[in-house]
Specification:
Layout lengths: L18 E6 L4 H12 L2 E6 L5 H12 L3 E9 L3 H14 L2 E5 L5 E5 L4 E6 L10 E6 L2 H17 L1 E3 L3 H11 L17
Parallel strand pairs: 2-3, 3-4
Antiparallel strand pairs: 1-7, 2-5, 4-8, 5-6, 6-7
Length: about 190
């Protein structure tokens, strides 16, 4: 699943190291997520990113089809929402909940009854050939702190994307305007 180097040449198994990091090229978040899920088994997945890509979303969808992903949440940035809007249908097929917020963080949380894994990365959910820095930890404290931060963003500073465009279409149809609606009225305050 990884487009870069084999992750086993970069990182040790989760059971052997509670905290490990890598700075360099060839470690991409989708391959890393696959590597983690193969160790944890089916788990809930929370992804926070500035920007995502069709390649990441397609790969995430494949992970769901392999029954490796239970519940899933994506938090993407409002400023990158022009790109996000173009990907919203596949995002909704991949993730149970999708939120837009003022977000530049790049983290993944993977959890089930046995595992709590936190990934902190400089990399968006895109592919590139630039060096990126990634930290993978099974620290419960780190997981809890990042989860609390993501919960705060979702609950207090986000717009839920799920069904937003369907709700807009229904709103305009009720007014007799039709379904060819510009998404231009979805502009975050302050832009």
């Amino acid at each position: 699943m990884s487009r870069g180097r084999s992750i086993s040449t970069i990182l040790r198994p989760l059971s052997e190291s509670s905290c490990q990091s890598y700075l360099g090229v060839g470690l991409h978040t989708l391959g890393l997520l696959d590597w983690i899920l193969r160790q944890t088994g089916r788990a809930d997945v929370y992804v926070s990113t500035f920007s995502t890509s069709d390649a990441f979303l397609s790969g995430f969808y494949r992970l769901k089809r392999k029954n490796l992903v239970n519940q899933s949440v994506l938090i993407a940035d409002l400023k990158a929402s022009k790109k996000t809007i173009g990907l919203y249908k596949i995002m909704q097929n991949c993730f149970d909940s999708v939120y837009l917020s003022m977000n530049h963080s790049k983290v993944m949380l993977v959890c089930n009854d046995r595992w709590r894994v936190a990934v902190i990365s400089s990399q968006n959910q895109t592919y590139g050939d630039r060096a990126e820095c990634t930290l993978v930890t099974t620290s419960s404290e780190t997981f809890r702190e990042i989860y609390a931060g993501l919960s705060g963003i979702v609950n207090n500073h986000s717009l839920q994307l799920n069904g937003l465009f369907n709700r807009l279409t229904e709103r305009y149809q009720d007014k007799g305007i039709g379904t060819d609606v510009s998404d231009g009225d979805i502009i975050p305050f302050g832009y």
